[in-house]
Amino acid sequence: MLEVQELTVRFHSAETPAVNGVSFSVPTGGIFGLVGESGSGKTATALSIAGLLDCAAASVSGRILLDGVDLLSLSSKERRRLAGKEIGVVFQEPAAAMDPLMRIGRQVEETLLLHGRFSAAERKKKALAALAEAELPDPERVYRSYPHELSGGMLQRSMIAAALILRPKLLLLDEPTTALDVTVQAQILSLLGRLNAEQGVSMLLISHDLRVVGRLCPTAAVMKDGRLVETGETEALFRAPRHPYTKKLVASVPGGEYNGA
Ligand SMILES: Nc1ncnc2c1ncn2[C@@H]1O[C@H](COP(=O)(O)OP(=O)(O)OP(=O)(O)O)[C@@H](O)[C@H]1O
Ligand SMILES: [Mg+2]
What we know:
This protein is an alpha/beta fold. It has a single domain, classed as 3-Layer(aba) Sandwich (Rossmann fold). Helix content is about 40%, strand content about 25%. The strands form two sheets. It has a six-stranded mixed beta sheet, sandwiched between helices. A four-stranded antiparallel beta sheet has the order 2-1-4-5. The mean pLDDT is about 95. The structure holds adenosine-5'-triphosphate and magnesium ion. Adenosine-5'-triphosphate (ATP) binds next to helix 1.
């Protein structure tokens, strides 16, 4: 469903490309993992897929095929329309991604205002349904709350609700659990697994933590300095890493064993 071919991202201010000829694909209804250390180019990859990189700051080349349509060949207007509808995005810091002065409900409804014509009543109905889908207790209360009134885990669930409200085909998850404590992390991962299984939404899950990827992703790629050094079944990456960098990543996992999908 998503096929990334030879993706290269150059920030104009940097000498070396942040992403350098990266190719991978996310199967329809599947979850693909992207793992790598800080600065390896994971976020730049996600931003370029979502069309969120400012072209004044970076140039993007290669092909990003969403169900066969190359997003990089579209006009920026076409692209915004398509990506806004078909691709949902969840980032690391839910608190930073939200407007502190705006109630959660309004923020969850945001994409409904941008894409499609829904009455206020329809928007609220969809937002409450999405909050319930994200397993938030008392969606009515969450809907009326301001970000500071919710825990980090509840905020991330609200972000997931916002990302899913238009029923996108693809969810980009950039370190969705990194800012959360371990128990909440596990809850969010199991929520994502359930949403994938029940709604069939395809996912690209980005993390610096091999364990997070191991929990949810049958296949994954390992990124270093803008390149993919190894791609394959996650289980095999754990069991028999080939690239020295993958070996290092596996060795850094306490216990080192595969415990996932
Ligand atoms: N706006 C920018 N301008 C210039 N260089 C940037 C910009 N954003 C990122 N970079 C550079 O691009 C490279 C890749 O950064 P990126 O944020 O994609 O890494 P990452 O793998 O997401 O790291 P982290 O795990 O810390 O989130 C880094 O060298 C970074 O310094
Ligand atoms: Mg990042």
